[in-house]
TrEMBL record:
Protein name: MIP18 family-like domain-containing protein
GO biological processes: iron-sulfur cluster assembly
Origin superkingdom: Eukaryota
Protein family per UniProt: Belongs to the Mrp/NBP35 ATP-binding proteins family.
Pfam entry (one): ParA
Keyword annotations: ATP-binding, Iron, Iron-sulfur, Metal-binding, Nucleotide-binding
């Protein structure tokens, strides 16, 4: 918002060298055309159309007055275009916003290409391009939500059990964390929690939050915040000390899922990866209602039966207004000792996904003994360093999901529900 008081504090300077608003706009148009030639490297578009170019708002009122026209229209134009140009000095400066710390390396590439492109203009003598991080969404005034400072929520789903959904969710979360993002992971499968088996924190005890009454602190493992019913009720997960089962009806499960989501003090997170239970029932709908999911990843296997359920999962997220960012075909192939690649379950149906669902981002993971060993050992595969090729696949998945998730929702719906939501005292026991 333009504050007239700030602009009046500096006197207008009228000189023969002052640019007209049309001339200034033409120079900015030249710069923007050069920046439109910088691709994001992900196939989503250029950095201008994606809104990655940001203005230095704190400097624009005073730095532009020495060549402003008689009307403030050029200031409004600069704010609208989110770019700062000083033609008399031949200087162009702006901020390039990275949608996530996970894409910082890519943003540095944008910075280099943008400077090279703009420097090709004859009148440009100096460029100042900086990289800025996007701000997390905040809670609405007067209401508190544990998800208020969670920027984006990624749901990892499958309509069938046993396809490797939890493995993909955990490794995706730690792939994002390796890139510098602040990440949490929620195991929303109450009947069969897998997270306590796949990660092995030194202390998996759930403790009451010191900051917020009746909230709990998530378990920390390698810098990633983890929450699962297996940590809350240790009898529910063998990896957490017991073999008991969670025997309860659907409405009770939905209420417990709500407590895990809204009763955990997540803090500031760039991504919260949710390992959703298989299916398209009450729990999936409850999860989508309690939090604004930014993007979804659907996990499947090459069999025809599993492919049919993938279509159902994509349709469910489409009805819930959630973009399916990628499909992961797990157990797709294996490489034998002779160097040949075999497809024990057939070639799969990824091409049908591309044709029928317009799904461009499809990733294939092999049948690997190392995957299984890592999951059983309690250390995510992407942290083991056993297979760089498979780690690269997870890294590509993280690169694909990051820009699809960022900025799709303005705030978490949980912020609007928290005034009606009340946690029972000591619910974690």
């Amino acid at each position: 918002m333009l504050r007239w008081r700030a602009t009046r504090s500096v006197p207008w300077r009228h000189s023969d060298r002052a640019l007209s608003s049309r001339q200034a706009a033409q120079l900015e148009t030249q710069v923007l055309e050069k920046l439109r030639g910088v691709s994001d490297g992900l196939g989503l578009g250029d950095i201008v159309s994606l809104g990655r170019v940001k203005v230095k708002r704190q400097q624009i009122d005073t730095s532009l007055t020495h060549f402003m026209p008689r009307s403030p229209s050029f200031v409004c134009y600069s704010l609208f275009q989110e770019l700062r140009v000083v033609p008399e000095a031949g200087k162009v400066s702006c901020k390039i916003e990275t949608p996530s710390p996970a894409l910082m390396e890519l943003a540095q590439q944008w910075q280099k290409e943008a400077e090279l492109a703009v420097n090709k203009l004859d009148w440009v003598k100096d460029t100042d391009f900086e990289i800025s991080k996007s701000r997390p969404r905040n809670a609405r005034a007067g209401r508190f939500s544990s998800l208020a400072h969670v920027s984006d929520i990624i749901a990892v789903s499958s309509c069938k059990g046993g396809v490797g959904k939890s493995t993909v969710a955990v490794n995706l979360a730690f792939s994002l964390a390796k890139r510098g993002a602040r990440v949490g992971i929620l195991d929303a499968d109450i009947y069969g929690p897998s997270l306590p088996t796949m990660v092995s924190p030194e202390d998996c005890t759930i403790r009451q939050s010191k900051k917020i009454k009746n909230f709990v602190e998530p378990v920390d493992y390698e810098g990633v915040k983890c929450m699962s019913f297996g940590f809350v009720n240790q009898r529910a997960a063998p990896g957490a000390g017991g073999v008991g089962a969670a025997v309860m009806r659907g409405p009770m499960v939905s209420k417990l899922v709500d407590q895990l989501i809204l009763g955990t003090e997540w803090g500031d997170l760039d991504y919260l990866v949710v390992d959703m239970p298989p299916g398209t029932g009450d729990i999936q709908i409850s999860l989508s209602q309690q939090m604004a999911i930014s993007a979804a990843v659907v996990v499947t296997t090459p069999q025809r039966l599993s492919f049919v359920d993938v279509e159902k999962g994509i349709a469910m997220f489409e009805d819930l207004k959630v973009k399916t960012a990628a499909v992961v075909e797990n157990m797709s192939y294996f490489d034998c000792s002779h160097g040949q690649r075999h497809y024990p379950f057939g070639p799969g149906h990824t091409q049908e996904l591309v044709d029928k669902c317009n799904m461009k981002n499809v990733f294939k993971l092999p049948i690997s003994e190392q995957f299984s060993a890592s999951a059983d050992s309690g250390r995510p595969f992407v942290l083991s360093g056993l297979s760089p090729e498979e780690e690269k696949t997870y890294d590509s998945l993280a690169t694909t999901v990051s820009p699809c998730a960022t900025g799709r929702v303005k705030y978490n719906r949980a912020c609007t529900n928290c005034s009606r939501f009340r946690l029972p005292r000591n619910w974690w026991f």
